[in-house]
Amino acid sequence: MANVALIGLEKAFGTQTALKGIDLAIADGEFLVIVGPSGCGKSTLLRVIAGLEAPTEGDVLIEGQGALSLTPAQRGVAMVFQSYALYPHLNVRDNMAFGLRMAKRPESEIAAAVGQAATLLGIEDLLDRRPKELSGGQRQRVAIGRAIVRQPRLFLLDEPLSNLDAGLRIHMRHEFARLHRELKTTMIYVTHDQVEAMTLASRLVVLNGGAIEQVGTPAEVYNAPRNLFVASFLGSPRMNLLAGEIAAITKSTVKVRLVSGDVVSAAVEAGRAHIGDRVTLGVRPDALVIGKGANGVNVTADVVETLGGMQAVYGLLADAGQPVCALLPGAHPVRHDDALRLCFAAGDAYLFDADGQAFVRLKARA
């Protein structure tokens, strides 16, 4: 296992800055997931850690040792790519053994390592096949096996499931979680898929425009987003974000007048808030319920997606035209053009100031 420290990392390609002041400590045995939209710098950061790219500024420490002067092999890292990168003319056994043979390891050691990795991944029966004879999921297992046999200190995984269909993605997510438990090796995993991020990570790093927006456990980042970007990026369906202004401040809530004219409450620390300030109110779709309460909004249903026992109802805020989504039980189907009163608890609301920074909530969701 290896701990990793990134200190003031910057990376520029000509006039374009890909990474901006990245400071991050990664513990031994951690499963760290870097998540963010396409083009935010995730893969560039992984390549800098691997030694495939040199940073413009900053340093990379692996187990306390400066790594910038080390080759990828000397860093003790193994990388699994989105494209699998298997040699088409070699069978599975030789693909997995390739790195060890290049390192001139004894054949007996190579055979033992390949056999052990194949058993761990359940691909013992595929060792004599070539990549073209394998499914996408099998190819990904071979790519992982090629990394495992090297017994690296650090696994770097660059969107390894992007080429798989939905069913295989779920299965391989479970496999990665199992492998991490069994191998107990530090893993840094890059993805734009928030479901992968939330289900695999021991800690999440949310990246945006080359900069870190927030670091924390999946629960911490989901329940206490630091800003509007994090709040809107994590969660499916996305958090509802409604424009308004502060109408009143009490000891336990801030009241917000939405553009629809509704006045609703959010249980947040008022802190820097002043009456009349522009704010954005956030409510997760699963926090909305159909009711007649005062803390709610009127919505006209537009599109309804049936999700088995649940239904995702997309509509427009009355007299404002702002989109709203509610995740509701499917027992009482909603139809197009239905008028709904959607209510929520003040403790389930989020509030963001004009700069997009979050107010501290008084009651975090369980």
Please explain how this structure is put together.
By secondary structure, the chain is of the alpha+beta class. The chain has nine helices and 20 strands. It has helices at 42-50, 72-75, 92-102, 107-121, 136-148, 166-183, 194-200, 218-223, 228-233, and strands at 4-13, 16-26, 31-35, 57-62, 65-66, 77-80, 154-158, 186-191, 203-208, 211-216, 240-249, 254-258, 263-266, 278-283, 289-290, 296-307, 310-317, 323-329, 339-343, 349-352. It has a six-stranded mixed beta sheet with strand order 6-7-8-3-9-10, with helices on both faces. Strands 13-12-11-14-20 form a five-stranded antiparallel beta sheet. Helix 3 (92-102) packs parallel to helix 5 (136-148) and helix 4 (107-121) crosses helix 5. The chain starts with a strand and ends in a 14-residue tail after the last strand.
SSE map:
Blueprint: E1 4-13, E2 16-26, E3 31-35, H1 42-50, E4 57-62, E5 65-66, H2 72-75, E6 77-80, H3 92-102, H4 107-121, H5 136-148, E7 154-158, H6 166-183, E8 186-191, H7 194-200, E9 203-208, E10 211-216, H8 218-223, H9 228-233, E11 240-249, E12 254-258, E13 263-266, E14 278-283, E15 289-290, E16 296-307, E17 310-317, E18 323-329, E19 339-343, E20 349-352
Parallel strand pairs: 3-8, 3-9, 6-7, 7-8
Antiparallel strand pairs: 1-2, 1-4, 4-5, 9-10, 11-12, 11-14, 12-13, 14-20, 15-19, 16-17, 16-19, 17-18
Helix pairs in contact: 3-4, 3-5, 4-5
